[in-house]
Amino acid sequence: MQLGQGATPFPSINDLASRLGSIPVVVVLGPSFGASPELAAVEQLLAARRDVGAIMVTSELTTDMLQRALRAGVKDVLAAPVETTQLAEAVARVAAGLVMVAPNTPVSAAIEADGELGRVITVFSTKGGAGKSVVATNLAVVLAGRASRPVALVDADLQFGDIAVMLKLSPQHTVVDAVGALDKLDLPLLQSLLIEHQPSGVKVLPAPLEPAFADQIGAPDMVRIVEMLRQFCSFVIIDTPAYFNDVVLGLIEVSDDVLLVAGMDIPNIKNVKIGLQTLRLLNTPMEKLRLVLNRANSKVKLDVGEVERTLGIKAEALIPSDVVVPQAVNKGEPVVLSAPKSGVTQSMNQLADLFLPQTADKRRRR
Asked: Which positions ≥6 away from 265 have C-beta within 8 Å?
């Protein structure tokens, strides 16, 4: 009734799949599709048909439900009872993102036509002062100079985020505005809320200007925003606070890579080891964790090999200690722009090579 006379009911996903033609279709799924077998059937259909988009209406909108639905390819999840206008707007948003694909078109060709989803990289540390914001900021700037599509930098340290200050930005909008507009948020509106760092072209979604606003933002909100950003960005880089909470765990769950930043001191290494143990207990795939050692050349009687053995994970990036880093931070400039010949910049370029290996190959051939 809410969808109007243009909607056609189907008893199952299989019945719908057998009737699909070449016309793009938006599917509205009921709460029963939250169960694993039904969601698996939806995932299979959506993976095979890029001209089909799905919305789920669920009786209880939880972080777990949202994450499972988004991983299955569902574009939007709404809590029941849903208002007619809200449902209509969600259908319109999903429909606008669909492409006309012939029934026999290979999935790879359809993805190429529609654009691949961007890679989500979360930068995390269990110890404040490890340098994760410096890593997140400079990695975003390096990737923005190489990527074919925009690079987004999200400040998910919702109480004390520093990204805007480190890039000398005066944001008119923050993540609070994006969350407040979630019921009508589409790609053009989200793009309008991002502020561009002019020297690099990085699109920034800053943290709230007041710590009190953090309580208004939940993990499902942040996950939905990130999932929208990856639709038009090559990379989405997320800076996080130095502790576990629902938002951080939700973002780690949907990330393709997690950069675990550690400093070269015993308290730092101890906290990172506890963080790794926590992530293992949460069944986080270890293959998406990448250790970044900051100030790796510091003369503090700690050997990189010793740190790797203690943590049980090999460091994939070593960033040297250099006075150019605090100088750049105090000027509100990324160090890769203010000191392009420094060892820190070389290390950040090598870190970016992990995500754009084809660029690294070209550089080596030259």
From this structure: 300, 302
Contact 93, 186 (CB under 8 A): yes
- In the predicted structure, residue 301 carries a pLDDT above the cut 80: no
Q: Are 181 and 173 in contact (CB under 8 A)?
A: no
Structural domains of the chain sorted by starting position, each given as residue range(s) with its CATH number in brackets? 13-112 (3.40.50.2300), 119-365 (3.40.50.300)
Q: What SS3 state is found at 257?
A: strand
Q: What b/e sequence results for 135-151 when a residue is b if at least 16 CB atoms lie within 10 Å of its CB, and e otherwise?
A: bbbbbbbbbbbbbeebb
The helix (H) or strand (E) run that includes residue 65 is helix 63-71
Helix axes 63-71, 219-229, angle to 10 degrees: 20
Order of strands across the sheet that contains 315-319: 195-197, 202-205, 151-155, 235-239, 119-124, 257-263, 289-294, 315-319
DSSP assignment of 307-353 equals HHHHHTS-EEEEE---THHHHHHHHT--HHHH-TTSHHHHHHHHHHH
Q: Which helix (H) or strand (E) holds 193?
A: helix 187-193
Q: Would you give the distance in Å from CA 184 to the centre of its chain?
A: 20
Helix (H) or strand (E) holding 26: strand 25-29
Q: What would the two tokens of residue 146 be?
A: 């190489």
Percentage with pLDDT > 90 across the chain: 38
pTM of the prediction?
0.67
